[in-house]
């Protein structure tokens, strides 16, 4: 007997049910794409994966009935490797959101892939303001800090304290040039002057040539427009050369792990701006103690930012009732960022997550009460003063919104 059309349809629907059920039960995958073993391995790396897992655990481990899974990978600070991993995660693994993205070149490349694939990227660990200016994306958010926020506090404070002339030692890639340009803008707005700069490749171990040039310039301040191990090496060598006796050092992106590696004896007096400090309040101390119990180090602002970004993303998925990008992004923008890391943050139309920043100074050995008691918080910089004004943004999304 030949099956009727209704019978065939019913059979097809029944056959499809297990597949639908399996799809519903598939985990929601989040990717942490970071520098696992390179110069930013301590500041980001495995600690970012841990922070993401902490956010998932604090959220409850599931969203919309689906288990939440974290994938971690090392982009090796190479944009081609980063984009290859991102494409594989989006196209084959079903990853809906990628975070961390240490290294500006990698972050810009992966944000372009995420935009093309209609997926979300939450950049928690690089500084270039291009992410929220010319290269802004409707599905991308710059979360923890950027070059403008790092410069606004540090450069302004140093000029006000008499550091009128500057010489930069700058990382020779997108992040360094962007940070130097932004810092120069702030310095000149405050009445200072930049006398010159020397470039240094990523992962430089010998800064002798750059430091000699800085000394010869006669500048009051040596600005370090680099990060991670590069900042640590530059500060150590400046101390060894005796430059810290006659010059002020301004580091624009050192992490607390870098200061610990440098040693408080060498880093004392260094002024910097940070998005997070573990000893700021009871919430930050409690969360940081949990992180340290596993990582055996206090969290950097990258680790803290990654926790905050993942937690906020999961709240938005739950609020939107879907993992689809547009409604999740809408929910993220509509919901204040409020967690142990950031209070009263919000996502602006250009993709900047605006929040308070903190101007700090590295303590002297006499002031410090322990290995991680490293900073004196000089002042809080309100979010609307810390980040680039929207009126100065070149993000195309603002024109569309207007």
* Architecture (CATH level 2) name of the largest domain: 3-Layer(aba) Sandwich
Strand arrangement, largest sheet? 2-3-1-4-5-6
Q: Estimate the global geometry from the Cα principal axes.
A: globular
- What is the CATH topology descriptor of the largest domain? Rossmann fold
Model regions low in confidence, pLDDT < 50 over at least 5 residues: 1-23
The chain-level mean pLDDT equals: 92
Strand content: 15-25%
Q: Give the strand tally.
A: 15
Order of helices and strands: HEHEEHEHEEHEHEHEHEHHEHHHEEEEHH
User: What proportion of the residues is helical, as a percent range?
Assistant: 40-55%
Into how many domains do the coordinates divide? 2
CATH superfamily of the largest domain: Response regulator
Radius of gyration based on Cα positions: 23 Å
Secondary-structure-based class equals alpha/beta
CATH class of the largest domain: Alpha Beta
Supply the number of helical segments.
15
Major sheet: size, sense and barrel closure? Answer: 6 strands, mixed
For the termini, the CA-CA separation is 65 Å
Structure write-up:
It is a single chain. The strands form four sheets. A six-stranded mixed β-sheet has the order 2-3-1-4-5-6, with helices on both faces. It has a four-stranded parallel β-sheet with strand order 8-7-9-10, with helices on both faces. A three-stranded antiparallel β-sheet has the order 11-14-15. By secondary structure, the chain is of the alpha/beta class. 46% of the residues lie in helices and 19% in strands. The chain has 15 helices and 15 strands. α3 (79-93) packs parallel to α4 (104-117). α8 links the parallel β9 and β10.
């Amino acid at each position: 007997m030949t099956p009727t059309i209704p019978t065939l349809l019913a059979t097809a629907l029944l056959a499809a049910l297990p597949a639908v059920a399996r799809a519903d039960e598939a985990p929601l995958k989040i990717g942490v794409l970071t520098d696992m073993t390179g110069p930013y391995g301590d500041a980001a790396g495995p600690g970012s994966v841990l922070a993401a897992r902490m956010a998932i655990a604090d959220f409850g481990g599931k969203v919309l009935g689906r288990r939440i899974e974290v994938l971690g990978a090392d982009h090796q600070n190479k944009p081609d490797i980063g984009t290859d991993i991102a494409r594989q995660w989006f196209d084959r693994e079903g990853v809906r959101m990628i975070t961390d993205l240490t290294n500006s070149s990698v972050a810009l490349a992966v944000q372009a892939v995420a935009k093309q694939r209609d997926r979300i990227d939450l950049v928690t660990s690089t500084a270039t303001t291009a992410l929220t200016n010319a290269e802004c994306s409707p599905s991308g958010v710059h979360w923890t800090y950027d070059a403008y926020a790092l410069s606004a506090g540090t450069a302004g404070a140093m000029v006000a304290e008499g550091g009128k002339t500057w010489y930069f030692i700058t990382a020779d890639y997108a992040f360094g040039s962007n940070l130097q340009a932004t810092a120069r803008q702030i310095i000149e707005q405050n009445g200072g002057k930049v006398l010159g700069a020397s470039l240094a490749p990523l992962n430089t171990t010998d800064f002798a040539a750059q430091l000699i040039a800085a000394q010869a310039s006669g500048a009051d301040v040596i600005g370090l427009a680099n990060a991670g191990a590069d900042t640590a090496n530059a500060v150590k060598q400046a101390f060894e050369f005796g430059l810290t006796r006659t010059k002020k050092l301004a580091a624009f992106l050192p992490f607390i792990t870098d200061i610990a590696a440098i040693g408080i004896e060498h880093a004392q007096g260094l002024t910097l701006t940070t998005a997070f400090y573990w000893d700021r309040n009871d919430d930050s101390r409690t969360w940081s103690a949990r992180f340290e119990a596993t990582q055996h180090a206090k969290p950097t602002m990258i680790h803290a930012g990654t926790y905050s970004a993942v937690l906020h993303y999961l709240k938005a998925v739950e609020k939107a009732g879907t993992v689809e990008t547009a409604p999740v992004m809408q929910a993220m923008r509509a919901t204040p960022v409020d967690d142990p890391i950031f209070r009263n943050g919000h996502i602006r139309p250009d993709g900047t997550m605006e929040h308070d920043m903190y101007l700090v100074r590295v303590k002297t050995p006499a002031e410090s009460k322990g290995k991680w008691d490293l900073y004196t918080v000089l002042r809080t910089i309100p979010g609307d003063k810390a980040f680039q004004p929207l009126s100065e943004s070149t993000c195309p999304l603002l024109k569309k919104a207007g």
